[in-house]
Amino acid sequence: MPDDAPPVRKIIHVDMDAFFASVEQRDNPELRGKPVAVGGSSRRGVVAAASYEARRFGVKSAMPSVTAVRRCPDLIFVKSRFDVYRAVSQQIRAIFADYTDLIEPLSLDEAYLDVTVDRHGLGSARAIAEAIRARIRTETRLTASAGISYNKFIAKLASDQNKPDGLCVVPPARGAAFVAGLPIRRFHGVGPVTAAKMERLGIHTGADLAARSREFLQTHFRSSADYLYGAARGEDHRPVRVHRPRKSVGAERTFGDDIRERTALHEALGQVADAAWERIERGQARGRTVTLKVRFADFKTLTRAQTFAREVASREDFLEAGKQMLEQFLPTTKGIRLLGLTLSKIQRGDEDGAGDHAVQPSLPL
Questions:
Q1: Which of 110, 235, 278, 281 is catalytic?
Q2: pTM for the full model?
Q3: Where does Mg(2+) bind (predicted)?
Q4: What burial class does residue 173 get, using C-beta atoms within 10 Å of its C-beta: 0-12 exposed, 13-18 middle, 19+ buried?
Q5: Residues 192-219: pLDDT tens digits?
Q6: Which CATH architecture has domain 248-344?
């Protein structure tokens, strides 16, 4: 390797399989093998998580409960228990910490690990991932999938490749080809709106994206152009960071029909709050500012924000703040087509503490 070549990292992305729903099925044998949705109810709310049995019917997180029931009439709803999920997450992170200090949690149920330094002399990143998965199964009675590669972007894609309870290794020599064969909607960082725009431009796969010039991407995707250009070629130089900066967490929903009536708007905002609070809890975020976003039928978009002296500690307080701000727009003769609710001024120790670290490029994947 030339002296000026970047070091080859060994990155594992660990993703728990249907985490919330799997915890519920573990703790309640009557739910095992059945379609389960965590959160919401059969009448209102949104799905926070779905078991694999429910996913086969098209049920997924952030889906309105009424839609989920239409897709899966036998769906069983169970109440969220975030205190339990957090406790299990702490167990899992304690396992991670036995293999590396370089852990970047993305949420309660997934994290990046830099295992370039082989602390226990297991011989490869794959062996480390297998050891971690085995301990998770033994100590929590849950399964995890893992992606192993030379950067974060591909490791995250790889962890989803053989779910559930699977493992996928993508070495540097296979990185570009692995990315080339994937649908663009699988790319981390490419949301539904960007994916739809790409497809209108004839970009459907990683290979299609790699065929576009940097100038083309800068014209159409501006600040994301460099990331997309590198990702399409299997390149991602971001290090695993122990502390991840995050400015806000929230959710929004566009309605099929514009809404004017106060009760219906409050109920819709409750569904948005459910989806947002699930993300807040999953990411263990805490903040003091609640922001409401309102888009009217004519596409005019307005926001209101309220900052509190203390952190917003519950979903009920979060929703109540949103309702109070929503009242500032009511009554309205114009229909409302979108509502969004966000928590910001996140209190998480946001400085990046890990930075770049010296690595040992000898450890194989």
A1: 110
A2: 0.74
A3: 15, 109
A4: exposed
A5: 889 999 999 999 999 999 999 999 999 9
A6: 2-Layer Sandwich (3.30)
Residue 345 region by backbone torsions, left for phi larger than 0, else alpha for psi between -120 and 50, else beta: left
All residues at 6 or more sequence positions from 359 whose CB lies less than 8 Å from its CB, including other chains: 7, 8, 9, 114, 116, 117
- 64 versus 180: which is more confidently predicted? 180
Binding residues: 15, 109
Query: Which residues are known binding-site members for Mg(2+)?
Result: 15, 109
CB 227 within 8 A of CB 179: no
Rounded to an integer, the average pLDDT of 243-254 is 78
Beta bridge partners of 248: 344
> Coil, strand, or helix at residue 108?
coil
* CA–CA distance, 69 with 65 (Å, rounded to integer): 6
Gap between the Cα atoms of 28 and 185, Å rounded: 35
Angle at 339 between CA 336 and CA 343, to 5 degrees: 155
* 215 catalytic residue (yes or no): no
